[in-house]
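Quick question: who can interpret this fold?

. . .
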Amino acid sequence: MTKIAIFASGSGSNFESIMTEIEAGRLSHIEVTALYTDQVSAYCIERARKFNLDVHINELKNFDSKADYERKIIEWLTAEKVEWIVLAGYMKLIGDHILNAYDRRILNIHPSLLPKFKGKDAIGQAFDSGETVTGTTVHYVDSGMDTGEIIEQRSCKIYPDDTKEQLEERIKEIEHQLYPEVIAKIIQ
């Protein structure tokens, strides 16, 4: 059984899709030790309660530095014997302390076909760009914003009559399939 921690900052729909796959036995080799969040009011906390999962809330503003913030996270990760970190809508760049402790053992999913549309509101960036195709990317995490080595991508058409919300829903559906599949392949 491989122990992972999931980091999320928002609604946690990718977090929930991973947990659902674990409960269904399709990721039976994985145990999630806890949800880690940097937002005290994030909806992902409610989703974690549904799965009776521990939640670690760690706000950067409560620490003197990002290094202190990350040291606290590493304390929890070490105590829980976490082997991999899975980012699921975690909206902070991972710093050197965690990157060094989990080199090539941090995954992220991003709602674009990287290297296009990095950072926040990638779906909005794609929607406003005039492109006809976007998608989602699972990649390893490095020190840059959405710059890590790409593991797998899936595309999604942008239709002329789409709304941004319709595009977001289609991309979420793709993410909820892709991320658990990649996790199953990569994390042994």
